[in-house]
């Protein structure tokens, strides 16, 4: 009887922990530099018709990142589309497979799928898993992600990485690198990079 109780308890704990990464749940990022903005531009090409931008900005509180997706030209068929922060920038040849896997500093992996009700247990880079997939042809979507970072010393930093849009079957449709946007210097009103 006691061994049966331990078996059931182990099974329950396994189900509870299955969404958590090997290094635990993602931590909320509270030290993002206020006002820092990165933009990923989708310019459209023969390989992918997607155009638009993804803007990522740390707000005044420094907690999390505000994302704004403004995309055009998503194919009418093939969605809903997922979008993820990836662990490498787009290579010079533009091949989206070169962006590697999703940004996943807590070593969670993609299975089981992300549960929107428990975003701390998802891959940091699984933005659509936490905030919902999109459908085309045009998209305008805003959300705040508490687990992404624009503070370079944080393992969840994506400012020098990429974002990838995937078809419903996970094939990569489009990708773009994040680039820092010019910001005014504190106190001077002049530009800085």
From TrEMBL:
<keyword id="KW-0964">Secreted</keyword>
<dbReference type="InterPro" id="IPR036423">
    <property type="entry name" value="SOD-like_Cu/Zn_dom_sf"/>
</dbReference>
<comment type="similarity">
    <text>Belongs to the Cu-Zn superoxide dismutase family.</text>
</comment>
<protein>
    <recommendedName>
        <fullName>superoxide dismutase</fullName>
        <ecNumber>1.15.1.1</ecNumber>
    </recommendedName>
</protein>
<feature type="signal peptide">
    <location>
        <begin position="1"/>
        <end position="17"/>
    </location>
</feature>
<dbReference type="GO" id="GO:0046872">
    <property type="term" value="F:metal ion binding"/>
</dbReference>
<dbReference type="GO" id="GO:0004784">
    <property type="term" value="F:superoxide dismutase activity"/>
</dbReference>
<keyword id="KW-0732">Signal</keyword>
<keyword id="KW-0049">Antioxidant</keyword>
<dbReference type="GO" id="GO:0005576">
    <property type="term" value="C:extracellular region"/>
</dbReference>
């Amino acid at each position: 009887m006691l061994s049966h109780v331990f078996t059931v308890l182990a099974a329950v704990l396994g189900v509870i922990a299955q969404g958590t990464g090997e290094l635990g749940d993602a931590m909320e990022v509270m030290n993002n530099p206020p006002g820092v903005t990165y933009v990923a531009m989708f310019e459209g090409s023969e390989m992918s018709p997607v155009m638009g931008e993804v803007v990522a900005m740390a707000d005044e509180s420094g907690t999390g990142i505000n994302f704004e997706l403004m995309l055009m030209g998503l194919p009418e068929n093939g969605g809903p589309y997922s979008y993820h922060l990836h662990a490498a920038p787009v290579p010079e040849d533009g091949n989206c497979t070169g962006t590697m896997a999703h940004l996943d500093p807590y070593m969670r992996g993609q299975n089981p799928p992300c549960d929107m009700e428990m975003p701390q247990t998802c891959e940091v880079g699984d933005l659509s898993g936490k905030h919902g997939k999109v459908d085309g042809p045009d998209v305008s979507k805003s959300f705040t992600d508490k687990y992404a970072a624009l503070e370079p010393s944080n393992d969840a930093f994506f400012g020098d990485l990429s974002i990838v849009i995937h078809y419903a079957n996970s094939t990569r449709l489009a990708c773009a690198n994040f680039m820092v946007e010019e910001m005014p210097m504190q106190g001077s009103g002049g530009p800085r990079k």
